[in-house]
């Protein structure tokens, strides 16, 4: 009886050992199969573009500025411009200044002022030559035929028949239309002006007399 029990126990142990050995072999086979599997194929990179490089976007053109909204723009003078009388028929006597220059401010008006505040200058060369008038920087003008000209007509003459900045010999009866310097007016916080200037007399000693009228230009 004891021999039978021992034989049965031995058989059970042998069966369990064989079962475990079979499991171990199966695991080794699976591991070997996984190790032997080929690695995945590498993914190919997309080909680089072969065309010309892209052009950077062009700068967009700046939007035009509305002159009416630009504080630095020069006002347009036309038939709709409303001029306001500043002064009328002021007499300016410019004394003889042999070989010297006399500066005239047309804002007030006033004779013999510093050059930085003057719109015109008179040079008396002495001798037989006539004196000359010239405009300061920023002043524009035109010689016209009649002192009956209106500010609107003056603006048209300055636009279409401007004077050069050179010296102009003085003769009795000359009539000039002038605009004062817009930049100087803005810097001094004063008004821009249209001026009608008449050479009413010239003397042999070089003294000249001018008659000036002025209008404030709006804007």
TrEMBL record:
Residues 35-74 are annotated as: Disordered. Residues 49-59 have a biased composition (Pro residues). Residues 1-17 form the signal peptide. The keyword Signal applies. It comes from Spirilliplanes yamanashiensis. Residues 60-73 have a biased composition (Low complexity). This is Uncharacterized protein. Keywords: Signal.
């Amino acid at each position: 009886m004891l021999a039978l029990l021992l034989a049965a126990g031995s058989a059970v142990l042998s069966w369990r050992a064989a079962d475990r050995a079979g499991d171990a072999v199966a695991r080794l086979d699976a591991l070997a199969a996984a190790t032997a599997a080929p690695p995945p194929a590498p993914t190919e990179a997309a080909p680089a573009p072969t065309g010309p490089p892209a052009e950077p976007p062009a700068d967009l053109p700046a939007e035009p500025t509305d002159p009416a909204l630009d504080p630095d723009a020069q006002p347009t003078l036309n038939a709709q411009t409303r001029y306001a009388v500043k002064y009328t028929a002021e007499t300016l006597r410019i004394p003889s200044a042999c070989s010297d220059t006399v500066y005239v401010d047309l804002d007030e008006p006033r004779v013999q002022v510093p050059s930085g505040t003057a719109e015109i200058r008179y040079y008396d060369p002495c001798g037989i030559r006539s004196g000359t008038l010239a405009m300061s920087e920023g002043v524009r003008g035109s010689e016209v035929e009649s002192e009956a000209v209106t500010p609107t007509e003056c603006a048209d003459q300055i636009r279409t028949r401007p004077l050069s900045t050179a010296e102009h010999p003085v003769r009795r009866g000359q009539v000039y239309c002038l605009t004062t310097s817009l930049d100087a007016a803005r810097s001094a916080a004063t008004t821009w002006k249209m001026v009608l200037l008449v050479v009413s007399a010239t003397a042999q000693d070089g003294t000249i007399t001018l008659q000036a009228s002025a209008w404030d230009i709006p804007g």
